[in-house]
Design a protein that fits this description.
Blueprint: H1 2-33, E1 42-48, E2 51-52, E3 57-62, E4 69-74, E5 80-83, E6 91-96, E7 100-101, E8 106-108, E9 112-113, E10 116-117, E11 119-120, H2 124-128, H3 133-137, H4 165-174, H5 177-180, H6 186-189, H7 201-208, H8 215-222, H9 227-242, E12 263-266, E13 277-279, E14 294-297, E15 304-309, E16 314-319, E17 354-358, E18 364-368, H10 386-390, E19 399-402
Parallel strand pairs: 1-9, 1-10
Antiparallel strand pairs: 1-2, 1-5, 3-4, 3-6, 4-12, 6-8, 7-11, 13-14, 14-15, 15-16, 17-18, 18-19
């Protein structure tokens, strides 16, 4: 009896020790999962039905500031996140990540601990909607290397000017379509019903690329390859996607130092304009204009130069001048109605600004158009001007202006 009681006592002691050990591990785990926050932070842990979600994005967005603002961070191995140094505002916060669908948005303000529930994608098709656009664009079929060089209408139909497959890839990847468009995003991998009804998707693409005031540039780009074949391939691409085909490759979540990145996003300029370029400092001395305004160039879309003050979350615009009021505007460029803006010519730029640069005094310079394309007489053949004597064939004069 005594021996039995001793055994029971020993067993109880072991059980208590085991319980205390487990409790200590759980406590340590809880402490390691805790996120320390300041009064201008929001932090917590992201979990789903699968447990802690590592390498997913936590997004905080607000319209309370003078311009729309968002901050994006990535969770660590334990699903922890920290949105640091948030300006005082009310935020909508949600989780996005590969293998997930967007979680419901939760409202919160700085100084709060906020644990979030991620939502696992119900199937691969739902998960793929969040893949980078290039994963979808990689599904585009291109002519085989054996079809180059082209032998023309009397041969394989490929234009004789196309000597290598690399020329085709240059247009559809590097130096053509993808230069201006995020091909593969939802807007480009599908055909909008508002575009119209067509006999084939190739016909739909032929109509799509002449939409809006970029039509001339789009036609010039597609003409650099076999346009008929290219339109058929783009039509095939969107048909296969509409039928449910998905990218073969799946993106991996951010790893290592990729998870240290904190992204701030501001909404500046206006819905009818686009950014061609931007500048924030003198590239020769990056300390110039520290924490100061960022200047954008809007190319053909508008003469209103967008300016962003990232420190105070303010945005405004500066009118870029031209020397000659008769300088043509993009508003007169030919267009076909678009699914988004109809027949409205939304671009209206005389200056056509590019390539902004900042000098050592913080002044911003743009390469810009300042007059009609015809050169003045002093630049033409017969002029005594030294430049005209050396370059009488030149039809344009590169110019720059400070703002």
């Amino acid at each position: 009896m005594i021996e039995t009681n001793l055994l029971r006592l020993a067993a109880t002691a072991v059980g208590i020790a085991a319980f205390l050990a487990v409790s200590a591990v759980q406590l340590a785990s809880q402490q390691s999962a805790a996120v320390r926050i300041d009064t201008d932070d929001i932090g917590g842990v992201v979990t789903s039905a699968n447990g802690p979600e590592a390498g997913v994005w936590v997004i905080a967005e607000t319209t309370d500031l003078p311009t729309k603002y968002a901050k994006i961070v990535v969770t660590d191995d334990q699903g922890r996140y920290l949105l640091p140094d948030l300006p005082k505002a009310n935020y909508n916060i949600w989780v996005r990540g590969y293998g997930l669908v967007d979680s419901p948005k939760v409202k919160a303000g700085p100084g709060k601990t906020l644990n979030l529930k991620a939502v696992v994608a119900p199937n691969e098709a739902a998960a793929a909607q969040y893949y980078p656009a290039i994963y979808w664009y990689s599904m585009l079929r291109i002519p085989d290397k054996r079809e180059f060089p082209g032998t023309g209408d009397k041969g394989n139909g490929m234009p004789e000017k196309l000597k290598h497959q690399a020329q085709w890839l240059d247009v559809v990847k590097t130096n053509g379509c993808n230069t201006c468009h995020q091909l593969g995003n939802k807007a480009t991998r599908t055909i909008s019903k508002e575009l119209g009804e067509f006999k084939s998707s190739a016909d739909a693409w032929q109509r799509r690329i002449v939409s809006g005031q970029a039509m001339t540039s789009m036609l010039n780009a597609i003409d650099r390859v076999d346009s008929k074949r290219a339109l058929a391939l783009y039509g095939d691409w969107t048909d296969r996607i509409a039928a449910g085909e998905l990218p073969k490759l799946k993106p991996s979540r951010p790893q290592g130092v990729e998870r240290n990145i904190v992204i701030d996003v501001w909404d500046w300029s206006n819905p009818k304009a686009y950014l061609h370029d931007e500048i924030s400092t003198d590239k020769r001395n990056p300390t110039v204009n520290a924490n100061g305004p960022i200047y954008g160039s809007t190319e053909l879309s508008t003469d209103l130069v967008p300016v962003l003050d990232p420190k105070h979350h303010k945005a405004w615009e500066i009118k870029h001048p031209v020397r000659d009021p008769n300088t043509p505007s993009a508003k007169t460029d030919p267009l076909t109605p678009s699914p988004y803006w109809g027949a409205e010519p939304i671009w209206d730029s005389q200056s056509n600004q590019h390539n902004p640069m900042m000098d050592e005094k913080g002044r911003v310079w743009f390469t810009a158009r300042v007059r009609p394309p015809e050169n003045p007489d002093f630049c033409k053949k017969g002029s005594n001007h030294p430049s005209a004597k050396s370059f009488s064939h030149q039809q344009r004069e590169p110019t720059s202006f400070a703002v």
